């Protein structure tokens, strides 16, 4: 699992005690998804142009320790499952190598005009499967 991006916890992302709000972890996972696809050679705008519109249908978050204002977090993303129209990404948020939060997000490729699932584009599915089979841990 390689780092996808680094994020410094900003003032507006923390509560009065300086802890990062729990909802911000989903934002990190969302940015992680776009950076993950960039890492695979599929920038997000190219994905959309090629018939890809991933929507989150399931999110599971496990918090291990707090992140605080000014902490620099590493966000790592791997694909752990690929289906016909869906895929699951495993996201780790780390602080100095220690796990802060562990997230599993399931995405479905949708046709937004029809509001129905549609198969993943062949190239996207192939790249996701290649990454998922490269030794990513199952969640």
From TrEMBL:
Q: Name one Pfam family in it.
A: 4HBT_2
Gene3D superfamilies, sorted: Hotdog Thioesterase
| Record CDD domains | 4HBT (cd00586)
Which Gene Ontology molecular-function terms are recorded? hydrolase activity
User: What span is annotated as the signal peptide, if there is one?
Assistant: none
Q: Determine if Hydrolase is one of this entry's keywords.
A: yes
Protein origin, superkingdom: Bacteria
Question: What EC number is given for this enzyme?
Answer: 3.1.2.-
Q: What class of enzyme is it?
A: hydrolase
Keyword annotations:
Hydrolase
Please give the family membership noted in the entry.
Belongs to the 4-hydroxybenzoyl-CoA thioesterase family.
Protein's name in the database: Acyl-CoA thioesterase
* UniProt lineage: Bacteria, Bacillati, Actinomycetota, Actinomycetes, Propionibacteriales
